[in-house]
Amino acid sequence: MTGPLPPEVSLSALGPRTRIGTGGQGTVYALTEDPRWVYKEYATRFVDDVDVTTLNRFVRLAAAAGPDAETLLGLAAWPTAIVRKEGVVRGFLMPRVPDRFRVRIQLPRGPDTVLAQVQYLLNSDDYLLDRGLHIDDRTRLELLRDTGEALTLLHRLGICVGDLSPNNLLFSLDSRPRCYFIDCDAMRLDGDSVLAQAETPEWHVPDADAEELATPATDAYKFGLLAVRLFAGDQQTRDPQAARTRLDRQLVTLAARSLDPAPHLRPAPQQWSDALERSIRRTPPTAPPQRAAAAPTGPEPTRPDAVRADPVRRVVPAPAVVGPRQAGRGWALLGAALAAVAVVAGLLSANDDTSNPPYRAGSGLPTGLVRQPSYPPLPTGIPGLTRPTGGPAGVTGYPGLPMPTRFDLERILPLTRPCILSEVKVGPGLNRTSARMKSSVAAVRGFLCGINIDSPGLEDRSRTQFTRAATLTKNGPFPVATIIGIRTATDGNPQVNVVFDPEGVGSSSGCWRSRLSLVTDDDGYGVGSLSAPVRSYCP
Fold first, then answer.
1. pTM beyond 0.70
2. Origin, by domain of life (predicted)?
């Protein structure tokens, strides 16, 4: 099809099409005969929920003559025609994203041209350098100014973005950086929505249960959040002070006001205009940074007193011994399992074959155990059992056990931890049979087992990550975890949005939501890190 678009078209009139993307609500297709437009087809489960009257109003707004309509189509992939199949609304047409909102970046799998999602910019300078992106503070300020101007226009037209997040916002690096909105059918027009409002994890307003979604006030909040994270180089922070080293004082103050829990106290994006202009004038462009040359590699010089590190048995400071917990948290089972291990270790060590080498990665035991470098907390119910000490010839000794053993209990103990209350579900609309989903379910199940016994399995073992995991631990145990979304991160690994349910009865009182970033190893996927858990509705 070519020429001007009518307000409604038949699916059969679109001609050949090619799938170019899939999201939570549907699939996007490119039109072979008219590359100006793309077609979004709603997933079957959403078709009956579409507010056709509101979608028609979206289309009429784009068709109106005048500069506002032209500007709207220049800054957003706005619905321009309804598509029906046998009389039923199946989706809509929208402009194809202009090429200037695509970017060539270096990904772990190699260079690629991708949609220039703002999420790429909310990272450290080293990350940007690795991706081949040069974004200086002048560019950040200009992009923030353009986004504020776009929000001001949308609000004047009665449009609220609602789910304002770095996934739905694109950037260009033209002479004046610009923004571009996608997923516009998720916006709200004069208080009406095509489908129910939703929020991206980590981009929710402080109290989504009490505050109406998709209002100028929620847009103001998320605009402030964008400003903070853009200059902090952090995907998750909500602290305006995190951006103070790169953002001037007046803009930090505006960001702090924008993040106020009280909606009526947040400044509109237009109120940022003067401060942004002044800051842009004071911030000159900077040249792309150069990565320092890598240090020469080679064998480390041998010293007489050098100690060769065992690549498997990494020694880390042991955490304090934790006392017994309530049986409801699985500690009664864990204590029994540990006692059983002590007995089994004693029996086996009595017949110890000294020719049998100590455990190493790649032996019959799962290599995933290598991802447990610290000693697990031990209950006090086993008299005399203390932390391991070094022994002769690489043998690990456990004071308080009746005999030495070649069994490395640091490796054996994780096998005996009871995996209590660990049902992992896949939410509606997700492909539960795909290999990636099956591997993700296994990774989430392992993480769920860990937090239910106070021993989270995380690749990132920083204090921040353990604090986040502790938020889940202290609010658990969780009988059920539900994967409600899955996407591919910039490193090519999955990120899964998970709701942890402490009751398993659909209550909204105690569920917690987090995004788990997965990493790959020889066994499949493991959990690398998690976002700060937040209260959520149970699925």
1. no
2. Bacteria
